[in-house]
């Protein structure tokens, strides 16, 4: 038992060393661009894991999760540029605004019965916010977007991405830990119960709408954190972050990585961002290759890459015991 625990901590120590050393290896040894890609993976991993609380644990197929990612991004950008708020305050306000949006949208959405109607309603709300951001030029700058978002020198990406990498990594690790505690808590167990059999859950006295609304709001909060991270990474924002394609991407990431594995969406984010970066350097039709890859994954191992790794690990442990 002590040997197993030592191996467990040894693995996490090795992962920690890699994460700490990675920015120097990438920026100084390879290319600054690849460090930028690493930060994008971190941001999308947080967004995907936030979304997975709704779909993977709660069984709610939201086609409008870009709304919360975008609200967080726009809140951080507008407070920084229009209200001249310091970056830390704007960053903290972003997930709060996203959570409020999640509470409002979730209030109506969780009352809808049927996966299709729930998906369509969340998509409709997201597209409504997209139109507001696109058309309300006096407030959001419309399709021109918001440019020149100020970032403190300590994490500025003007000369180096190293400072921002550590900032994004620290924020994401804290959020992932909180998501892990939520997933392992009695609340997380209740969510999985609702996902597996919502009708039976009502028979034992569970308030289905109550639990789903809480999960929806929590997911929106962490999606807003990811949106704020994206804003200060790019130092610009456009209405595209609210478009339906952003919601589609995060769903694909969850399917690709595996929604039944806690870190599956993070793995899916890494694969998606790397595929996008690699394929677009050769062709503009990267979606064709991505679609083919996803079809193969669904056909060969529908539990995603994370599920495949988990199954191989379980089989290896079983073999080792025998």
Structure explained in plain terms:
With 322 residues, the chain is an all-alpha fold. The protein has a domain at 28-244. 78% of the residues lie in helices and 0% in strands. The chain is built from 14 helices and no strands. Helix 2 (32-57) crosses helix 11 and helix 3 runs parallel beside helix 5. The longest helix has 29 residues, at 2-30. It is globular, with a radius of gyration of 20 Å. The model has no long low-confidence stretch (mean pLDDT 87).
SS elements, strand count: 0
Average pLDDT metric: 87
| Through-space gap between termini | 18 Å
Secondary structure tally, helices: 14
Share of β-strand residues: under 5%
Query: Taking Cα atoms only, what radius of gyration do you get, to the nearest Å?
Result: 20 Å
Largest sheet: none
Helix content: over 70%
What structural class results from the helix and strand content?
A: mainly alpha
Outline: globular
Unreliable stretches covering 5 or more consecutive residues: none
Order of helices and strands: HHHHHHHHHHHHHH
Provide keyphrases for this structure.
mainly alpha; 322 residues; 14 helices
Concise synopsis of the structure shown:
Helices cover 78% and strands 0% of the residues. With 322 residues, it is mostly helical. It has a domain of 217 residues.
Topology of this structure?
Layout: H1 2-30, H2 32-57, H3 66-81, H4 87-109, H5 115-135, H6 137-140, H7 162-184, H8 186-196, H9 198-203, H10 208-234, H11 244-257, H12 264-280, H13 286-300, H14 304-321
Helix pairs in contact: 1-2, 1-7, 2-7, 2-10, 2-11, 2-12, 3-4, 3-5, 3-10, 4-10, 7-10, 8-10, 11-12, 11-14, 12-13, 12-14
